[in-house]
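Hi all, posting the design record for the shared folder.

TITLE: backbone redesign
STEP: 1 of 1
STRUCTURE INPUT:
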């Protein structure tokens, strides 16, 4: 990675979910489909049709590219809305609200890009969960901003060094398409086996 390279906004979400998964996708260039990834891709294919619309008092534009030179971020938005002059990003996700904040990091990164591109302060965003047809409010707080900046720094280091983080088993592994390849529980089992020898 050099000074002209940009970090995909989606990589922040993946890193927060699992650093090993992020390495496989953005360093090794691997991607494996499963039910969840296919469903998510299908959702984004429907959402990523470039266009704009006016819905009552809300102006909407879909599938525009966001970029930040300051943070070296780039990515395509699902939806940007403007209401009463206030801009905010809306990220589409399959399923229901998750237990983790990786989706919120992605919304915050989009807000950072929007702030740089428009000169406006962004105070909020939303995550739209397709399964429940509900939006989750995301406050672009100082705490979330700092978590996002810390994740940007971690992803930058990962991309620069190319060092593979070890897979660590968590509840998230059950739905991960890489689980059969990285086998995060195998290292622990091998370690126990060696201790018993």
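Okay, here is what came back for every position:
SEQUENCE:
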């Amino acid at each position: 990675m050099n000074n002209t390279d940009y970090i995909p906004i989606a990589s922040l979400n993946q890193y927060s979910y699992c650093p090993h998964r992020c390495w496989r996708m953005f360093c090794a260039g691997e991607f494996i489909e499963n039910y969840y990834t296919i469903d998510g891709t299908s959702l984004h294919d429907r959402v990523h049709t470039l266009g704009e619309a006016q819905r009552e008092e809300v102006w909407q534009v879909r599938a525009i590219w966001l970029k930040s030179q300051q943070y070296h971020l780039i990515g395509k938005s699902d939806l940007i809305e403007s209401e009463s002059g206030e801009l905010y990003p809306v990220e589409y996700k399959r399923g229901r609200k998750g237990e983790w904040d990786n989706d919120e990091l992605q919304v915050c990164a989009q807000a950072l890009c929007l702030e740089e591109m428009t000169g406006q302060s962004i105070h909020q965003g939303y995550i739209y969960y397709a399964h429940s047809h509900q939006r989750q409010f995301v406050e672009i707080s100082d705490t979330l901003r700092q978590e996002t900046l810390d994740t940007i720094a971690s992803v930058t280091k990962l991309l620069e060094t190319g060092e593979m983080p070890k897979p660590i088993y968590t509840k998230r592994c059950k739905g991960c398409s890489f689980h059969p390849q990285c086998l995060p529980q195998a290292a622990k089992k091998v370690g126990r086996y060696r201790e018993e020898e």
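COMMENT: The chain has seven helices and nine strands.
Let me know if anyone wants the other runs.
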